[in-house]
Amino acid sequence: MSSHFVSAGPKLLVTNKQRAVIVDKVQTVKWAQNGYQSLKSRVDFYLAKTEDKPDWLVSRLAMNWQTHYTRAITKDSRTVGGEGKAPVPTPRFAGARDWKTSHYPSEIENLKPYNDRNGLIELRNQETGKFEWVKPSITGHTIEKINSQLMQLAADAAFIYWLTGDVKYAEFAAPILWTYMHGFSYVKPPFVPSEENKLKRIIGLTSYEVIHEGILESIAIAYDFLRDYIDEEPEIDANVIETGIKRIVDVVVAGGGNRGNWNLHQASKITYGALALAADQNYKDKKGRQHYVDIVLNAELPQQLGLIHVIRQGYDQKTAVWGEAPGYAFDTTANIIEVASLLSNDKNGRKVLQDPIVKRAVFNQLRQMYPNGASHGMGDTSYTRINTRAVELMLSWALKTGDTKTAAELSAILQAEIVAGKYSREDNVSLFDIINYTAKLPQPAATVLQQNPTYFAEPLNLVMLQNKPASGDIRYALGASMLGTKGGMPILMALPLNCTGRDMC
């Protein structure tokens, strides 16, 4: 059935106009070529298993194959049963909020087909090596991980279909997406006992925490790349898929929390869902692409704060430093930039990447480093390094907007990490990376690496000090940091090149 979009083709990560650029990248650029071949080889491995048995992979989804439950019953943040009977198999809800379990498969090929017996699920006990029929309540996050793994395969295969035009990849991906989403259309919110009020606020439709509704990202990507194929498939109803996406997004918007990592993880989920949808006027409730994008950018809701407000409230407006330890702060900046990059085709979304605070936040990571490239170790996180994901995405944006000076400086930071052996563009390349990272790093402007000997990060009450020799050889450099609370005793931390861990040395 036809989707809501008037024009066919993907809208989320990339558009048809950009296809030639992506094709050239995966054919001529080594890191992208290797990443694409790795992604394709994994898909091809499982596609081969479906040639003689079309349901081989679909049957591995963690579904209520026998029971067809429409609602999970929870108690003490664990799934203890189910109720209702849908006309088709429905996706299983997560086993527990607690991630600890001894029951999980190591590979997709170890999963059992049509895995349901009166609500139990058969999994390998990693302590005994034997498969056992167990209650979902002791399986931790295994159920959602199974479905996420398979949906990511569907998303990757859908991308290959769009890139190559080979319909066998659509025929591989579409049944996974449709089986899950058709069943999901009958799923009701899980039952939570009345006394568990905290859980009621944060629970999702597939997971015990809305920030773990990660399967939505793969659902949105798979649907987006399969749009042309689905338009011609009478057995698949795009309206059912889009309604399911909207339901998950609405729960994420209403749940969780509007501060810190929760807020940003929610923003990411909302963005993926939003960009797979059509314009607001195509839905009866007038809640489509623009509606959800506006929430991500501008909301001041009880459980969701828009990125525009996050930048104003989270960063020190004078120093552009996020007021947390690097292990949190650097990742927060990367999360903001990733969401903003997804929204960069939106006029209002571009405002985030254009905000000077965001660009300065990336460069200020560099200023919180010791000469050997490790950050200060304040707070409850360990020494970390500059977030290369944030640098890569800001570099891509700088090149798109013709800011060659910033691009050269960001290139220098990445190349320094590569030379130090701390980063490789060919390791763990994802679909997102292939599409969003620039093909080749521009000529670096190494002057950006020459930091002032002192730096004060005001919201952290942190002074960074470093002394580098004229040669730039970090073996003969010294770095130290001094920090403390107002009125408290300052702490001096030094990190010579051979110092590791959190010890004073």
From TrEMBL:
InterPro entries: Chondroitin_lyas. It comes from the Bacteria. This is Alginate lyase domain-containing protein.
